[in-house]
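Field reference: sequence -> structure
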Amino acid sequence: MIRSVPSRTPRIHPNAFVDIAAQVIGDVEIDEGASIWPGTIVRGDQDNYVKVGRNTNVQDGAVLHVNPQFACVVGDHVTIGHRAVVHGCRVMDSCRIGIGAVVLDGAVIEEGAQVGAGALVPPGRVVEAGWLVMGVPAKPVRRMSAGELEDIVQNARDYVALWQRDYGLRPGFPLPPPRGVVDTHGRHTVNSMTVEVPKVLTW
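Structure field:
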């Protein structure tokens, strides 16, 4: 679902992917090649905004939100893992936020850093460029190797390829029909069950 709040409307590049089961609300900018996956919530309200950079993927169940003091700004070629919470903070280019990690208000994840799965980055904390942090609260573990840094960028490339190959739907584009027989009233019969064809929100 893509919807506005008063005076604030999402701005989505025509070559970005927003899954129909995601929610993008308010003052949100999604750049070219980015992908927003099922169950994700990207909410720009409270007089602040969310920006998702080029070729960045925000995976299933993640939440991006703001508060009145801090926008949520995510750079290019970033992977935000399943169920991660990125709240009122800045994630710079070519970072990876692990599955279930939490990054809180005013934190900065510098370029090429990785927040390990389940880690908690406290408010205002800076994760230095190229470092892996883990734990609750998150603490530096080691510098990332050149191969690991390249893997972060490749992870982002892989997600661009995935949505373009297998999904490729953008708001307002028709859904592929489910398998079965469609009648002239826009209903499908699938395994002897009749369902209405879903309507796609346009923008």
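Note: Residues 172-203 have pLDDT under 50 and may be disordered.
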